[in-house]
Design a protein that fits this description.
With 277 residues, the protein is mainly α. It folds into three domains: 3-77, Multidrug-efflux Transporter Regulator, Chain: A, Domain 2 (Orthogonal Bundle), CATH 1.10.1660.10; 78-109; 114-276, no CATH class. It has helices at residues 3-10, 14-23, 41-55, 63-73, 79-109, 121-126, 132-163, 166-180, 188-210, 222-230, 235-254.
């Protein structure tokens, strides 16, 4: 039979047969006078056995030796060990898939984007603002979650849970819209008034969560936060951020909450990472 007929009978493609030849699990047959490969029923049985083993997850590199042992000695003595290894590997894959399904369910429940940590998804549902601050917030959340790791995630989740308060989120959304409107024509008075409003809304949260801060190693990435923010904001928005940073440092120093200025990481009008120092 020709390769197309063998492929049809075995339920594979001709390309798969060629791949089997390349990796050495199926010997190439002799060619007929017309130049086409000529296969027989033994090749069909071989391909069916290869498919069966591959479907179990056995790497193709192990297939030739396994088939040779079973053909000469019957069921290989190490078959049980191989099957045990495959079973453990599949159990691990099933556990990972189950975890992925749990994450998908969490994200779906909160209508959250798939690139967000599921533990923080409720915050972004409660605060569906748009604009430059929302983009900064989302992107810096991804980075902070990575830096926090499994150990720090519960602490980070508590911070976001506090910020997801419905009233706080609504007021924060209004502040984000005001921040987006800052531009070349915005006066110093507008910038100052907006910073005052940010402090009025988020100042109590800073005080409330300050005592719960835990160490977070930013790994020298503080400058990346600043670089990311500076490339997105206009001059007046940057002025607002710098003024807000100065006021937050002044507030923490006055209340003896922090002895050093927090790193230059900014998000939604205040630096989330300041709670971690």
């Amino acid at each position: 039979m020709r390769s197309s007929e063998l492929a049809r009978l075995a339920g594979v493609s001709v390309r798969t047969l060629r791949h089997y030849h390349r990796v050495g699990v199926l010997d190439e047959p002799a060619r007929g006078g017309n130049g086409y490969r000529r296969y027989d029923v033994h090749d069909l049985v071989r391909v069916l056995r290869i498919r069966r083993l591959a479907a179990l997850g056995i790497p193709l590199a192990q297939v030739p030796a396994l088939l040779e042992r079973t053909e000469t000695d019957g069921p290989a003595a190490d078959s049980d060990q191989l099957l045990d290894e495959l079973d453990r590997e599949l159990a691990g894959q099933m556990a990972r898939l189950a975890r992925q399904r749990e994450v998908i369910a969490q994200l779906r429940d909160h209508h959250a984007a798939p690139d967000l940590p599921p533990e923080l998804a409720p915050f972004f549902r409660a605060s569906p603002s748009v604009g430059v601050l929302a983009r900064i917030d989302r992107d810096q959340t991804v980075l902070l979650a990575h830096l926090a790791g499994e150990e720090g995630m519960p602490h980070l989740a508590r911070l976001y849970e506090r910020l997801s308060d419905a009233l706080l989120a609504a007021r924060g959304s209004d502040l984000s819209e005001r921040f987006d409107r800052l531009g070349p024509d915005s006066s110093d008075a507008e910038v100052t008034a907006l910073v005052d409003a940010f402090l009025e809304v988020y100042g109590p949260v800073v005080d409330e969560l300050a005592s719960a801060r835990v160490p977070l190693d930013l790994g020298g990435t503080e400058d990346y936060f600043t670089e990311f923010t500076d490339t997105l904001l206009n001059e007046q928005q940057l002025r607002a951020f710098k003024l807000l940073e100065a006021r937050l440092v002044e507030r923490s120093t006055r209340d003896e909450v922090a002895v050093e200025p927090p790193p230059q990481t900014r998000s939604r009008g205040m630096r989330r990472s300041q709670f971690w120092e």
